[in-house]
Write a structure and sequence with these properties.
Belongs to the ABC transporter superfamily. With 243 residues, the chain is α/β, with parallel strands linked by helices. The chain is built from 9 helices and 10 strands. α3 crosses α4 and α3 packs parallel to α5. It is globular, with a radius of gyration of 18 Å. It starts with a strand and ends with a helix.
Length: 243
């Protein structure tokens, strides 16, 4: 589903991603963790072309993102993304936000689109908010709408870029429960950037630990948290547990 081969990413002179080699199979849920500034979000954003790479090869769902001829619009139909900030259209209702991409991009018939959107709202526990504007619901509810919107195009791959970082602590759990439901109930591939270690333990098949733009460790979830192999990962986890 996702293949990184010796991928390098620069911002000017700054080397943001070093020699990234990573493969993620269909149906896996992989969590990216590490200190702030380690390259986690940058790596996730290269997967749907929001960040370009300077060298190496990146293949996503049989699309080669290192090839100039690749049409990113076609790729993004199968790759959904949930951002830190919700990016909902303020002038549209919750329901309209979810229906927009299937209508414009997917040309889904209106009644079918509406039924699917309502079903997604029901799944995230917000069917009663269908006619509300984003400003009329909480941040946690807006993020759940954003998740429903990302699912509306029936993606094969879903990217989460720190989906709870902009939320008040009391709103985080509802969003995490929705993500857990998605990853456990479907064969969708998920790549999740998070600082929520308890959540990572529950939801991930694998944990990829990054530091200074490099993949330091890549292991099964239980093995990583119980027996980290590198000194840097041990140091990171000891601070998380201590604090």
């Amino acid at each position: 589903m996702i293949e990184f081969h010796d991928v390098q990413k620069y911002y000017g002179q700054f080397h943001a991603l070093h020699d990234i080699n990573l493969e993620i199979d269909q149906g896996e849920t992989v969590v990216l963790i590490g200190p702030s500034g380690s390259g986690k979000s940058t790596l996730a954003r290269t997967v749907n072309g929001l960040e370009s790479i300077q060298s190496g090869q990146l293949i996503v769902n049989n699309h080669d993102l290192s090839a100039k001829k690749t049409d990113l619009n076609i790729l993004r139909r199968d790759v959904g993304m949930v951002f830190q900030h919700f990016n909902l259209y303020a002038n549209k209702t919750v329901l309209e936000n979810i229906m927009l991409a299937p209508r414009i991009v997917g040309h889904v018939p209106e009644e079918e689109n509406r039924k699917s959107a309502l079903k997604l709202l029901q799944m995230v526990g917000l069917e009663s908010k269908a006619q509300n504007k984003p400003s009329q619901i909480s941040g946690g509810q807006q993020q759940r709408v954003a998740i429903a919107r990302s699912l509306a195009m029936k993606p094969k791959l879903l990217l989460f870029d720190e989906p709870t970082s902009a939320l008040d602590p009391e709103m985080i759990d509802d969003v995490l429960q929705v993500i857990k439901k998605i990853t456990s109930d479907s064969d969708m591939t998920s790549l999740i950037v998070t600082h929520e270690m308890g959540f990572a333990k529950e939801v991930a098949n694998r944990v990829v630990f990054m530091d200074e733009g490099r993949i330091v460790e890549d292991d099964k979830t239980n093995s990583f948290f119980e027996r980290p192999q590198t000194e840097r990962a041990q140091q990171f986890l000891s601070k998380i547990i201590t604090h």
